[in-house]
């Protein structure tokens, strides 16, 4: 992204996949970019509309099984997201949106449903629902502090060789195999629910770094950090 240009955020299908306050991730990215003097333009793409290819960061959220299936069908038919990611755009995909990025995920009866194949992952149904606080140690290569958040999903996700785990689960279920989320290129997927970036500003800054090609300047994160420490203290087993 040229230094004088606007950062373009694209929020995909808020009418289908925004069940858990997912707009929070859009707001956090907007604010953290603006606080660094980066102008931002956000496009909300409803599921009847084409996905623009010229975005810098794409966001897709969580949702229930049927809207998730519909979103996968529409994204596959549309093709705009594939072209944007092939062009080098960054992306945050959360929960249902994360599962959609893979080759397959579990539908409302557990039946396999085709994903859109942007990440080398395959999801299905787990034995039970994973609900609760989640803490996970981030891949050190990413330079993002320990992740904290909330999860609420039935799905379990197997990672293929084309992706790396985003983190190792300390508390919670994540992918279901001791890892949580994944990344490949500039695409991150996670089970951390809803406004995960409000609890993990380091992840927001990773997306901004990828999108702008430069590490954003440090900003005062005292309130974010207090929340993170409070959640860690409340969630981690006592020594
Ligand atoms: N329907 C998916 C599951 O249960 C995703 C749920 C969600 O986005 N919270 O695994």
Strand line-up of the largest beta sheet: 2-1-3-4-11-10-9-7-8
SSE topology string:
EHEEHHEHEEEEEEEHHH
The end-to-end span amounts to 46 Å
Report the major sheet: 9 strands, mixed
Within the CATH hierarchy, at the fold level, what is the topology?
Rossmann fold
Low-confidence stretches: none
| Fraction of helical residues | 25-40%
Which overall shape is indicated by the principal axes computed on the Cα atoms?
A: globular
Write down the Rg: 17 Å
**In CATH's first tier, which class applies?**
Alpha Beta
Structural class, by secondary structure, is alpha/beta
Q: Could you say which small molecules are bound to this protein?
A: glutamine
Q: Work out the strand percent.
A: 25-35%
Query: What is the number of E strands?
Result: 11
Corresponding CATH superfamily: Class I glutamine amidotransferase (GATase) domain
Q: Give me the CATH architecture, please.
A: 3-Layer(aba) Sandwich
